[in-house]
Every structure is written in C-alpha cells, then in structure tokens.
Amino acid sequence: MLLSLTNTPRDYAWGSTTLLAGLEGRPPASGPEAEVWFGDHPGDPADVQGDGTLDAVTGGELPYLLKLLAAASPLSIQVHPTREQARAGWEREAALDADDPTRNYRDDNHKPELIVALSDRFESLSGLRPVPDTLRLLDALDGGAGVAALVERLSQPGDVLRDVIGWLLSGDAQVEVDDIIASVRAAADSDAGEWTTTLRAVSAISETYPGDPGVVVALLMNHVVLRRGEGIFLRAGLLHAYISGLGVEIMAASDNVLRGGLTPKRIDVAELLSILDTTTGEVPVLRPVEVGAVTEYEVPVDDFALRRVALDGQDLPIEVAGPTMVLATDGRVAVRSDSDVERTVPVGTAVFATADETRLTLSGVGEAFVASPGHGTSARAK
Fold first, then answer.
1. Which residues contact 56 (CB under 8 A, 6 or more apart)?
2. Do domains 8-125+226-262 and 287-381 have the same CATH topology?
3. 8-125+226-262: which CATH topology?
4. C-beta of residue 253 within 8 angstroms of C-beta of residue 39
5. Which residues are CB-neighbours of 221 under 8 A, at least 6 positions away?
6. Is 245 within 8 Å of 126 (Cβ atoms)?
7. Phi, then psi, of 126 in degrees rounded to 5
8. pLDDT tens digits, residue range 278-330?
9. Helices (H), strands (E): how many in the chain?
10. What are the φ and ψ backbone dihedral angles of 174, each rounded to 5 degrees?
C-alpha cells in the first residue's frame, strides 16, 4: 500500500523563510520554516492524505525519522545519547511530566543521524578538532587574557576538552568568553591564513549569539562545508551544530537532544558532559558512489538507509525491504508499486510504502530520496 504524506513546517527561530519555499516553488513564508518531519514520532507524526497521521498506520514502530531541514541561522550546539544512555535517562525521568522544563529525554532511543546537502553550500560544526590544531588556531588570534586562559586550560593533562567545555558553560567564564569572542571578531576581519574561513564562520555565529559561551565551544569544533549531494554522518556523543543551508536529514526515530550553547533553551551541563564523546578528529564527508541513477550513503547503523535517485524520464524499479519513504526534492516524481496505483509526489512531500511492498517503480524527471530501514550500502567517505 502507498500513502501520500505531508506535514506543516516547524517554526523554530533558526528556520528560513526562503529555503523550503524555494524548493517547493512558492513565495517566501511569513515566518521561519525550519523542519518538515516525515515519520511517526509522537512529537509530530506526518499527515496521511485524507486520513489521519502516520503513527496510526505504523503503530509508532517506524525505526527512522526523515526530515527536510532549512537553516537560516545556527542551530544549537548539541549531542545525542547512545541507546543505553537514552534508556537510562528515560527511566530516571519517568516521574517527570512530558512538558517538564527539566526533562532531557523525550524517548528511550538513540539518535544517530545523516544530513545530505540540497543547497549548493551547507555549513556545519561537526565533532571536536584535535587540541594541537586548536592551539594553532588560537595562535592566529591577537592575544588577550581570555585567549591566554583558554590556551592554558587546553594545555593541561587529562580529558581536557570535557574540562574546558564544562568551564565555558559553567557561567564562571563570561569575562574570558567575551574576550575570546572579541579576538575572534578582530581576526576574522583580517587574513588568518588556514583559519580564515573558520574564524569568519565563528565570528558570524557570534553576531547571532553575542556573548554566548557556545561561540567559544564552536571554536573547538571542526567547521565543515558540504556541497550539494554530499553528506555527513553524526554518531551518538558527537558534538555538532548545523549553521546554514537546506538538507535532507534522516535519523533514528528519536527527539533526544542535549544542548551545549547557541540557544535560549535550557542547558544541562552535567548531563551534556556525561554523554559527550571527546574523541577528536575530522568527521568524514560522504561523497556518494553513483551506480546508474542511484547513489547511496554508507552509515554504520541499522536504523536507516538513504538513497538518492536521479530520474531522467525512464521508469526506475528499485527493490525495497521494510517500510519505505520516497521524498521528492526536484522536478516531477511519481511512484507506483506492484499492488497499488501510481502516486504523484510533489516536491517537498513524500510517499510511504508499507512493509509488504518489495518493489517500487519511480518515474518522471527529477530527484528523490528513498529512506528505509538499514541495510548494506556502497558509499565512499573521503
């Protein structure tokens, strides 16, 4: 069975008035449009055309959540728990009301995720930079007591990044934070060599969040720029924040987020630090391997798999296993199955195929993303 899905964009403040509108070929929105959820998560299940919401069909058992994400300004710096951490946190908070402001865990699931750029440029902060590299970056700043204090703390032994992030978010380092941000802004106005692009990105973030300790946390992170079609996988525990751009995002079906700055929302520093993975290094960009009209993105989890399909007017049959979604992102796309009639998929909407379907035929001229439970893929990370 095939079901047509839509949803209302969520109006988070960081959303764009133009990115989703431009994708769908409509005038700019009157307010921010941040995310469109295609899934059965109780936080915002997708609407089934003509009949209720998707959770009534799946029983809330879909293992993944597919989204369109449109960022005009930075999202909060955040981290997601492992499955074990989520279950423990959910149990600890069992007595709290669902809307209790002190609640950290919205469900008992982990939240690994993959973002694939739809815009020509998609900026993110992904993972923690090796400390020696960050010390070299700090050398590009014009000194100051705050910079000196950060250098000293980064030069200590032990789990230094966990300690530094805890210090920055404690509320006791505001003088140093302000001094570091001023130094970043000054350096961004000049040529800082290899760090120019990163410093300009962090300086721009400081314009949106002046005085926020998260700006200095951002200075510790890898600045990653994706081109259209490129993706990045974010494992549990990895600190990250999307800065700007339009993308297709898929994740395990969860809404568990621990924040670490760049937000007016509550930050539970102790809980954030307890699940933070301080392993450093670049997060590989996934540059998909094209096999005919289909490209795939390799992820090391079983919750989800994602394929990009380019349609050139010829029918394209694809094998599927488990509940599957086809999200149209360009042109004219249609889907039919062996047991159901053809469904047109307007750009910005999706078709859901129930688990009894084993083959879908896509047609039209355009682009679509096919989401399904996890399986082996053939992407290459460089």
1. 48
2. yes
3. Jelly Rolls (2.60.120)
4. yes
5. 77, 125, 126, 127, 128, 129, 239, 240, 241
6. no
7. -140, 110
8. 999 999 999 877 667 899 998 999 999 999 999 999 999 999 999 999 999 99
9. 10, 21
10. -65, -40
Report domain extents, the chain: 8-125+226-262, 130-219, 287-381
For residues 113 and 233, give the distance between their C-alpha atoms in angstroms, rounded to a whole number: 6
Residue numbers belonging to the annotated binding site: 78, 80, 113, 240
**β-sheet bridge partners, residue 234:** 113
DSSP state of 280: B
Residue recorded with tokens 């630090």: 273
pLDDT tens digits along 352-364: 999 999 999 999 9
Q: Report which residue type is found at 331.
A: G
Instruction: Give the residue among 316, 337, 285 at the shortest CA–CA distance from 127.
Output: 285
CA separation for the pair 294, 194 (Å, rounded): 36
Q: Six-digit token pair at 342?
A: 């053809």
CA distance 45 to 7: 8
Catalytic residue among 185, 259, 307, 343: 259
Binding residues for Zn(2+): 78, 80, 113, 240
Q: What is 287-381's CATH number? A: 2.60.120.10
259 is catalytic: yes
Those residues whose C-beta lies under 8 Å from the C-beta of residue 376, and which sit 6 or more positions away, are none
Question: Residue 361: CB partners within 8 Å, gap ≥ 6?
Answer: 315, 316, 317, 318, 335, 336, 337
